[in-house]
Write a structure and sequence with these properties.
The chain has helices at 59-74, 84-91, 100-120, 124-127, 149-161, 174-184, 203-211, 228-238, 251-259, 270-273, 275-285, 301-312, 356-359; strands at 6-19, 26-27, 30-31, 34-44, 49-55, 135-141, 167-169, 190-193, 218-219, 242-244, 265-266, 291-292, 319-322, 325-326, 337-338, 341-343. It is α/β, with parallel strands linked by helices. It folds into 2 domains: 2-121, 2-Layer Sandwich (Enolase-like, domain 1), CATH 3.30.390.10; 126-354, Enolase-like C-terminal domain (TIM Barrel), CATH 3.20.20.120. The strands form 3 sheets. Strands 6, 7, 8, 9, 10, 11, 12, 13, 15 and 16 form a 10-stranded mixed β-sheet that branches. Strands 5-4-1-14 form a 4-stranded antiparallel β-sheet. The protein binds magnesium ion (MG). GO terms for molecular function: lyase activity.
Length: 368
């Protein structure tokens, strides 16, 4: 059984130049001109190459983590061993239960799923229980426009004209939501992600102001995001579905919220927590009032993994798609979004590999 022995695990930081029809938004205190994550490449002795994706804000850190921690533990081990990743998680737990080491393991986890499905010759969704739908609706997730009603109107109108039927905003005010509600009409679901805008005593008033514009859900309403009790109190009183999860550092925290039904949507990020954890969270939601709606602010193998996860889960939810122009759009030829829908791939594994130029570190540019 030598063929399944891991020959190499490497990471390839991916910085995708984008524009969103105005000046770059701020991210982590800096203007943001690229959308960043990292490809994870796994190869076994038999030549099978599989792909994962890790959250990555600092490429030098992630490269070092793969080189010094991940690769030495994974190399020469059998990729088919179901205990490989759990044992690595335990071996590395002293280095932190969230952050870049965990994100690196998440990328390896996705690559191992791709590898298993490729080796079995089946699409990933089959290993997740089988697809319950052939296509998944995508929603246009706008970046931040800082309450600029004119821009919000223009960009959401553009998304609707391209066939998207649902929109998410990264805004914090009722005025911003009102502008998009006017542009999109009364029946378009509009989600609002505040990225942890409010302290617990500020949130009720801010949400009340938004209610007349009918938000579909309000995402990450509270600072700090891990205050589960405050979230549960807010959900019980605010009258709008709440969604959280992208800041969760473990599946455990989200499972507790599901058990207590303290929010309506949980949003695991597969490039932070891994696909195994996200699948467990989706299963944990079954029979509860909580719906798993993965956070998908990325475009690589983690995006495809999320598409398979959504296709296989019981409750139908839409797939987050950041609404930007990319200089190079991963999988544009293989798994395109058309009229606001993504077909669920049926080729073995994730269904498509990243394009050779991405693997070579060429991400395109907008320079003319
Ligand atoms: Mg979000």
């Amino acid at each position: 059984m030598k063929h399944d022995i891991i020959r190499s695990v490497t990471c390839i930081p991916m910085r995708l130049p984008f524009h969103h029809w105005t000046d770059p938004p701020l991210f982590a205190g800096r203007p943001r001109t690229t959308l960043d994550s990292a490809l994870v490449r796994l190869e076994t002795q038999d030549g099978v190459v599989a792909w994962g994706e890790s959250y990555c804000v600092e490429p030098r850190a992630l490269l070092a983590i793969f080189e010094t921690l991940i690769a030495p533990l994974a190399k020469d081990k059998p990729a088919s061993d179901p205990m490989l990743l759990p044992s690595m998680q335990r071996t590395l737990h002293n280095l932190g239960r969230s952050g870049p080491v965990v994100h690196a393991l998440a990328g390896l986890d996705i690559a191992l799923w791709d590898w298993r499905a490729k080796r079995a010759g089946v699409p990933l969704h089959e290993l997740l229980g089988g697809k319950r739908r052939d296509r998944v609706r995508a929603y246009a997730s706008l970046l931040q426009y800082y309450d600029d009603a004119e821009l919000l109107d223009a960009v959401s109108t553009r998304a609707l004209q391209e066939g998207y039927a649902e929109i998410k905003l990264h805004e914090r005010s009722a005025e911003a939501l009102s502008a998009v509600r006017r542009a999109a009409g009364p029946r378009t679901p509009i989600m609002v992600d505040t990225n942890c805008a409010w302290l617990p005593d500020e949130a009720p008033g801010a949400i009340e102001a938004m209610r007349e514009h009918d938000p579909f859900w309000i995402e990450e309403p509270l600072w700090p995001p891990e205050d589960g009790r405050a979230l549960a109190r807010l959900q019980a009183s605010c009258g709008v579905p709440l969604a959280v999860g992208e800041n969760a550092s473990s599946a455990h925290a989200l499972k507790e919220m599901i058990d207590e039904e303290s929010v309506r949507y949980v949003q695991p990020s597969v490039i932070k927590l891994g696909l195994s954890a996200a699948r467990d969270i989706a299963r944990h939601c079954q029979g509860t009032a909580v719906v798993c709606a993965p956070q998908v602010a990325f475009f690589g193998p983690g995006y495809l993994a999320s598409l398979h996860l959504i296709a296989a889960q019981e409750r139908e939810v839409s797939l987050e798609r950041l609404y930007v122009r990319l200089a190079h759009t991963p999988y544009q030829q293989t798994v395109p979004i058309q009229d606001g829908w993504a077909q669920v791939p049926d080729a073995p594994g994730l269904g498509a590999d990243p394009e050779p130029e991405l693997v070579a570190g060429r991400f395109g540019s907008f320079s003319s």
